[in-house]
Write a structure and sequence with these properties.
This protein is α/β, with parallel strands linked by helices. It is 43% helix and 14% strand. The mean pLDDT is 93.
């Protein structure tokens, strides 16, 4: 581990403590996810595998949902303002019932945009429910704490966001009673 990782970890812990003290992680603030979302805004890179996986899973599980992609950078200094802008745009223009934001896995540096205070505050202020889908299972970012729901991966976010059509059909058929 380099010295940069140590400083990042320290900055992460300080911001986490500050935002927790302000109540940004309070479960009372968490919004429920819509049961049958008609539109889902995905705020992520349009080039990564994560977005393709989410779109595929959403289409397979619940084909009635429309996906609105709001492409942003997900790493580097430009990423936090772009993510914040996309969250605010989705809210202002009510482009969806639900937001998924995140990216696939990477190093602490790659995921750092989702540890940015501006991104955390934009998620907290969002009127639309937000699923944070950053990295892989062991990765936990500030965005994960402040979001309404944390998904372990982007694919998991798509699974959480919508019901499974096949399961609903199977349950519906088992409850049918035929006249005798």
């Amino acid at each position: 581990r380099g010295l940069g990782d140590v400083y990042k970890r320290q900055a992460y812990e300080q911001l986490k403590a500050k935002l927790a003290a302000e109540g940004l992680f309070d479960p009372a603030h968490k919004k429920p996810l819509p049961q049958f979302p008609e539109k889902i805004a995905i705020i992520t890179s349009s080039a990564g595998a994560a977005v393709h996986d989410m779109i595929r899973i959403l289409g397979t599980r619940w084909s009635m949902t429309k996906v609105v992609l709001l492409p942003v950078r997900v790493q580097g200094v430009e990423a936090p303002p772009e993510i914040v802008g996309a969250i605010r745009y989705a809210n202002k223009h009510k482009v969806a019932d639900l937001i998924i934001t995140g990216r696939g896995g990477g190093s602490i540096e790659d995921l750092w945009a989702f540890n940015d205070e501006r991104v955390a505050r934009a998620i907290y202020e969002s009127e639309l429910p937000v699923i944070s889908a950053v990295g892989h299972e062991p990765d936990v970012t500030i965005s994960d704490y402040v979001a309404d729901v944390r998904a372990s991966t982007p694919s998991n976010a798509a699974e959480i966001a919508v019901p499974d059509e096949a399961e609903i059909r199977a349950v519906s058929y088992t409850h049918l009673t035929l006249p005798t």
